[in-house]
Amino acid sequence: MHRFALALLALAAPLPALAHVVAAPDTARAGSYAAVAFRVGHACSAGDVTLKVRIEIPPGVVSARPQPKPGWTYEIEREAGADPKAAPSAVTFSGRLPDEAFDEFALLMKLPATGDTLVFPVIQTCEKGESQWTEVTSPDAPGEKLSRPAAILRLTPVELQPATHQH
Ligand SMILES: [Cu+2]
């Protein structure tokens, strides 16, 4: 019942484009090095302040380097005992972002050569609460409106790329 009510609410009042945490761009070439920003459109609740943005790196991404941001620190997590050159399992940015503003937190990633979609769960920690952007649509309900969707990056197959822009 609760989920159904949320779905109806989402249909009745679509959220603005900047809402949620989304990947920008939301499409990248499979197997490429891609700089992808995770855009945070609002705080955990109205008037709150975002303090941390934790981006979980899915399997198959073999490298992920955070772009430093003035006023923010970052922390890279790796599997215990992993090679320091191994891909991070998560990157957390810490700073301050008021609800009225938005910001972007970028990673340079080596993407897997195969696959359709990468899912990046994002944990947003605020002064007064937390938002877990971890929901994914189930195959049973592909059109379902989610209240806290994970950030999605769609992969473009290598063979569908134009031959230009190879530099
Ligand atoms: Cu939103």
UniProtKB/TrEMBL annotation:
InterPro entries reported in the protein's UniProt record: YcnI-copper_dom (IPR012533), YcnI-like_sf (IPR038507)
Domain YncI copper-binding residues, every copy: 20-155
Keywords from the named record: Signal
Signal sequence region: 1-19
The name this protein goes by in its record: Nuclear export factor GLE1
